[in-house]
Structure formats: structure tokens, C-alpha cells
Amino acid sequence: MAATTSASVFELASHALSSAGKGILAVLEEFGRARAAKALYTELAAMSDEELDALGLVRSDISRTVYNKVYDLR
Asked: How many of the other CB atoms lie within 10 Å of CB of 44?
């Protein structure tokens, strides 16, 4: 009977650690997306209107473009 209880405790601990690891990974992925968004926004915002036009953008499109790019939206 003790072996069954021990196995259950180990299974619960394993599941808890796995869930925590997945949560930490999700947070790190979001930090990565935020850093990418900041870098892209900074790059686009520093461009002249002519440079943006060459990319098919206007200044008011920068935020939406960055969001769509970072979250891979079409």
C-alpha cells in the first residue's frame, strides 16, 4: 500500500513540475515576443516616411504591423 501512495506522490510532483516548466516557458516566450516587438517598432519608427512608403507602410500602420508580425497574424 505504501508503494501505491509513493507512486501517486511522485506522479503528482512530476505533473506539478511539468506544469510549472510549461508556465515558465510560456512566460519566456512572451518576453521574447515583447523584445522582438520593441526592436521592430523602434526600427520602423526611426524610418522616414519615404522609407516606410517603400515598404508599403504609413506611420499610422506601424503598431498594427508590429503586432501582426510578432504574433504571426495575416
From this structure: 19
Question: What DSSP element (H or E) covers 71?
Answer: none
The pTM of this model reads: 0.70
Over residues 1-57, the pLDDT tens digits come to 445 556 688 888 888 889 999 999 999 999 999 999 999 999 999 999 999 999 999
Q: How many CB atoms lie within 10 A of CB 66?
A: 20
Q: Using alpha carbons only, how large is the chain's radius of gyration in Å?
A: 22
Sequence-distant contacts of 68-74: CB under 8 A, at least 24 apart: 69/40, 70/33, 70/36, 70/37, 70/40, 71/33
Rounded (10°) angle between helices 62-70 and 2-45? 150
CA torsion through residues 27, 28, 30, 31, sign? positive
